[in-house]
Amino acid sequence: MLKTLSSILSFATLCGYALFSQAAANYQVEAQALAQGGFIKGQFDGCTQVEVIDGEDKYTGKCTPDGKFLVGFGRDAKAVQKLVFSFNNKADYMAVVELEQRQYKTDRVNGVPQKTVSPPKEVLDRIKGENEQIWLARNKHTESFDFLTSFIWPAKGRISGVYGSQRVFNGVPKRPHFGLDVAAPKGTPVVAPAAGIIRLAHNDMFYSGGTIILDHGYGITSTFIHLSKLDVVDGQKVKQGEKIGEIGKSGRATGNHLDWRINWKNVRLDPAFWVEAGGNE
Fold it and tell me: Are β-strands 237-238 and 196-205 bridged in parallel, bridged antiparallel, or unpaired?
């Protein structure tokens, strides 16, 4: 039996963010950014999984043994999202939330090597293999609770690129940018924004150059690209604030910077919602 929003929650909308008032003692929201690229982190005692319904698309995540959960919303997520919580007793609950619809900027970048804008046929197999490695790294399920901690900035420097922007390389429109760019000199330390396990440490990927994927548990991963140096290896456990690499301009990059990305499974989230503004200075 599916119980609707009114059975467990009430909400009001303020400045594009929905504020939940607790209508049941076993439900609470700990953090949220109700916008495209945002997330909800909370606890619903007894839940085993939560499903996000975004129009015809569905994304499912597990709840921790004590009912904690985190769900995210993609760059182009629709305004109305449904959250369906499942329990061992098969009684489901649904919450409806409204997301802020964002406007994204267009960045034009010239001077990128032509072979990386339109890669030659001889490297297509390499790119395919690297994409498979990335997919596998992001889809390992780890029952670690590191994703529940407050994240810190992975590097200090100027913000040079933002999530969601559409990039045009040498006049050719490409996929939207899904990261947060921090510009700093080559060799600037990159640290773990939260603890986790290194799922991928690759020195030279075609597009992203030096690449690290850090698993924070329950489908939440951080990705760090264009690195000049890696200080970790696959399978290594790292603590929050531990150095994992150094900023560079490897792969498809025209200047030294860190491109930091956060995923909930294969849903790309905005890292800016995970850290305090100004903490990168």
Answer: antiparallel
Q: Under a CB-based contact definition with an 8 Å cutoff, are residues 138 and 263 in contact?
A: yes
Assign 237 to helix, strand or coil: strand
**Is residue 144, in this structure, part of any structural domain at all?**
yes
CA 244 to CA 178: how far, in whole Å? 21
145 within a domain of the structure (yes/no): yes
Looking at the fold, whether 115 and 90 belong to one and the same domain comes out as no
Final residue before a domain boundary, out of 98, 125, 160 = 98
pLDDT per position as a tens digit, 162-218: 999 987 777 777 789 999 999 999 999 999 999 999 999 999 999 899 999 999 999
Decide if 230 contacts 210 (C-beta within 8 A).
yes
**197 neighbors 216 (Cβ within 8 angstroms):** no
219-228 pLDDT per residue, tens: 999 999 999 9
> Does residue 279 fall inside a structural domain?
no
Measured CA to CA in angstroms, residue 75 lies from 28, 49, 178, 259 at distances of 25, 23, 8, 17
- Residue 148 covered by a domain: yes
Q: Which of 18, 35, 17, 36 is nearest to 76 (CA)?
A: 36
